[in-house]
Amino acid sequence: MHHLTTPAPSFKSLLPSPPRHAPFLPNPRLLSLPPLPYSPSAAAAGHSIHSFGLTSRDTDLSSSSAHCSTSLRNDAAVSHGKLRSFGPKVVDVATLGNLCVDIVLNVPELPPRQRDARLAYMERLSASPPDKRFWEAGGNCNVVIAAARLGLHCATIGHIGGEIYGQFLLDVLRDERIRMVEMTEDGDAVDTSSAAYETLLCWVLVDPLQRHGFCSRADFREDPAFSWMSKLSGPAKMAISQSKILFCNGYGFDEFSPGVVVSALDYAIEVGTSVFFDPGPRGRSLSNGTVEEQHALRQLLKMSDVLLLTSDEAESLTGIGDPVLAGQELLRNGVRTKWVIVKMGSKGSILLTASTISCAPAFKVDVMDTVGCGDSFVAAVAFGYIHNLPFVNTLAIANAVGAATAMGCGAGRHVATLERVIDILRESNIQEDDAFWKELLVRNVKTDDEVTFLSNMALNGSSNSPSHATLRNVVSELLPKLESARLEGKLAC
Predict the structure, then answer these.
(1) Strand 99-106 vs strand 200-206: parallel, antiparallel, or unpaired?
(2) Which residues pair with 214 in a beta bridge?
């Protein structure tokens, strides 16, 4: 059942807010924000770190920080065969681009499909911005907020403008204990008064049937929104080198040129940072896009460590309708690909490696809003990857985090909380559909595949059937890690 308990506002009745070009007002709380962890190699190269708009040139990089919102473990990079060690990896997850402010509105009908009509529709909305109560952090903010709530240390790399929307986004990220690394440097020749420098806005439109439509200025540009960025900045490189995982998705191409995205991929590989890539709906258009876009997509599909796709997206990129076969095709075509994860919506999810197939049904919850569920799912997969969890455990926590987000209203600050995830796991109410999974697996299982299926009962596998991992055992292994993360979060603040 899909419903929204708190209706989004109608754009005809919204209170006015300050104009888009309102002057930037410094936030005194930002002045105490410490920089990213010290990196001797980066310091030697003269790189600086931009943290919430501040540069490390004004800060003692060698000083330690005990600030509750930015405490970081100074442990070495995880090295369990999935993550390679390349210097201190003190950030768990960094995201590339796709930072925006969502504005959620109830509308009588979704915007028209025609480009000119959609543009006119968006301009009418933009002429009367909504009250700040209806602003929300969007895009990759969903990923890092969900990951931070699981106890991971997060940074987000991209661009946020200096206007009121950018200030709002910075405040949200800071409150969630997430670092912002700016893609521009002090010496860059950028017209900061230009509309192209502003924070991206995304209008999230909800019709009476609770269907969603999305609209932003990036939809109406031939070139990326931040086409003035031509290279990775020093701060961005430092953040990538100090992160265990760099997450990219197809929406990053709306902001950055294919060359910038590929340079981030190449640099992550160079410094031993694992790359997660979710092509999303943009995968189809990229595969039919410019020569540069097609090349960038191929590189990301081949060189990423983990691919995450819906079953429809997997079929779109491979031409194979069976999600298991499509995932295995992506694995075969990959050079560095270790995991392919196929999201099956209300059915659950599948994790494929070169020799294993793991499946986990979804959890039963009262669904209020599905926006942000996929982003939250990514955050939990990163948690499992970093903690070297068994594959089926990783799927279980990812399904739980996605379900916890679906129980809320909207994304951003409304994504899954740790408490809600723990409650879902404790209730252990999964959507078992034996007929669906049996049909899917029987036609795909090979004698040399190790197949594991999450269920309420334990069964040993055979050459023609999967092993059943009991939900009770999986939950008993996950809860101590999550309880520990909750305790650490309370102690940090």
Answers:
(1) parallel
(2) 204
Tokens at residue 401, please? 């985090």
**DSSP string of 13-78?**
GPPP---TTPPP---GGGGG---SPP-HHHHHTT---EETTEEGGGS-TTS----TTT----PPPP
Q: Name, of 116-125, 145-154, 360-369, the range with top average pLDDT.
A: 145-154
DSSP assignment of 132-165, as one string?
GGGEEEEETHHHHHHHHHTT--EEEEE---SSHH
Regarding predicted confidence, which is higher, 187 or 373? 373
Query: Amino acid identity of 124?
Result: R
CB 223 within 8 Å of CB 256: no
What is the pTM for the complete model shown?
0.80
Set out the domains of the chain in order of their start, with CATH numbers: 41-492 (3.40.1190.20)
Bridge partners, residue 351, by sequence: 341, 358
Backbone phi and psi for residue 78, each to the nearest 5 degrees, phi listed first: -65, 135
Burial letters 319-342, b for 16+ CB under 10 A, else e: ebebbbbbbbbbbeebeebbbbbb
Given a contact cutoff of 8 angstroms between Cβ atoms, the answer to whether 261 and 233 are in contact is no
The sign of the CA dihedral 135, 139, 144, 149 is positive
């270790």: which residue's tokens?
338
Helix orientation angle between 141-149 and 164-175, rounded to the nearest 10 degrees:
20
Percent of the chain with pLDDT over 70: 77
Measured CA angle at 62 (ends 57, 68), to 5 deg:
95
> In what helix (H) or strand (E) does residue 376 lie, and over which residues does it extend?
helix 373-386
Q: What is the C-alpha separation between 429 and 471, in angstroms, rounded?
A: 9
CB proximity list for 218: less than 8 A, separation 6 or greater: 200, 224, 225, 254, 255
